[in-house]
Amino acid sequence: MATQNNDRRGNDRRGISRRKLLAGGAIAGLSLPVLHELIPHQSLHNGGANDALAAEGEHGSHGSASDPHPDHAGFASVADVDHAANGFDPTAMLRDFDWGKTRRLPGGRVLREWEIFAEDKEIEVAPGVTYAAWTYNGRVPGPTLRCREGERLRIRFVNSSSHPHTMHFHGIHSAFMDGMPGIGEAAGGGQIEPGESFDYEFDAEPFGMHLYHCHVAPLAAHIAKGLYGAFIIDPAGGRPEADEMVMVMNAFDTNFDFGNEVYAVNTVGFHYQRHPIRVKRDELVRVYLANLVEYDPINSFHLHGNFFHHFPTGTSLDPIEFTDIVVQGQAQRGILEMSFPKPGNYMFHGHKTEFAELGWTGFFEVS
Ligand SMILES: [Cu+2]
Fold it and tell me: Cα of 142 to ligand 1 centre, how many Å?
């Protein structure tokens, strides 16, 4: 499979366009202005292999008279994306757990409920780089839904977008609640058309770090557009107290060539480089990590100057390894636990270094 992928990438435009990006001068410690230089402008990147070769050393020459973006020269002065316009801020999103609303069922069991709507929305994924996303509740990733093992869950899904969508949860549940088009239509589920709604209902099991995403075809497009989010089921006995945060590794194909130009954690490229994540020395940090990157076979998380315990899928309370890197295919996820004994800025990034150079990099600021 990897061979096929390499063959394909070696011969199609998207592989070339990414190599071309890197040929444009990507180096360790790349900054936002440089990222912008690397964002492919369709008219500049429609060529073939010869263009890719010609791109060697092209970095710095984008601001020419042929530049299709007249405001390009001023772009580097833009410091940040407009979080207010996006309607979400990756820093706040890290520790934003949506516990929904609860009430007791007869017999005393907890029913936990959420309302989630799908909405088409343009978002800014790097300064000046907008993307016509499809969102759950207006954000990418969607809200981090959190609950406890054994609860009854009800998720009212309202499709307010212009395309059919679903919510497909990873977990143990009835096929009718699986968000799979063609299954569950008789029960009112399956594919949810624009203007329609459906209540997904199932038990919270098993405990762990899970996720949800749309499952309408073409699946790659529906996921790449932004329809995914984290779904955490806490073990009945809980986990040790910690500074908890969610990192959804994602990426955006901004020029529609079935390859990504911007990589990130929680959507905005280089966000946690520009805004390091503040943590306290010696305090337990728990990262709920998932990979939702489309069009690339793997992603990874690497931590500098430290090691962490890795709980794959979070379904055991015992870690399987003590490491400084974890590799995930799409939809793989896990829990990482670490503490920082010394103050300072500790980098974390995708150790598919090409991704790091296109936005998937950040820092923990330990004080
Ligand atoms: Cu969809």
Answer: 13
- CA 173 to centroid of ligand 1, rounded, Å: 20
Q: What are phi and psi of 204, to 5 degrees?
A: -80, 100
Q: Does residue 107 come out as left (phi exceeding 0), alpha (psi in the -120 to 50 range) or beta?
A: left
139 CA to centre of ligand 1 in angstroms? 14
Q: How many angstroms is it from 169 CA to the middle of ligand 1?
A: 13
CA distances (Å), origin 312, targets 134, 270, 284, 287: 28, 26, 18, 12
First CA to last CA distance, the chain: 45
> If we measure between CA atoms, which residue out of 103, 115, 214 comes closest to residue 157?
115
**Distance from Cα 171 to the centre of ligand 1, integer Å:** 19
Q: How far is the CA of 317 from the centre of ligand 1 (A)?
A: 33
The rounded Å distance from CA 106 to ligand 1 centre is 35
CB atoms within 10 A of CB 83: 17
* Two tokens, residue 235: 């073990």
Q: Which two tokens stand for residue 312?
A: 């794959």
How close is the Cα of 223 to the center of ligand 1, in Å? Answer: 7
Alpha carbons 66 and 148: distance in angstroms, whole number: 57
Q: Torsion over CA of 324, 327, 328 and 329, rounded to 10 degrees? A: 170
Contact status, residue 296 vs residue 250, Cβ threshold 8 Å: no
To which residue do tokens 């060539």 refer? 257
Average pLDDT over residues 65-83: 50
Ligand 1 centroid from CA 15, angstroms:
26
String of DSSP letters for 10-52: HHSHHHHHHHHHHHTT--TT--HHHHHHHSPPGGGS---HHHH
213 CA distance to ligand 1 centroid (A)? 8
The answer to whether residues 79 and 35 touch, using CB atoms and an 8 Å cutoff, is no
pLDDT digits (tens, 9 = 90+) for 269-315: 999 999 999 999 999 999 999 999 999 999 999 999 999 999 999 99
Write out pLDDT tens, residues 181-197.
Answer: 998 887 778 999 999 99
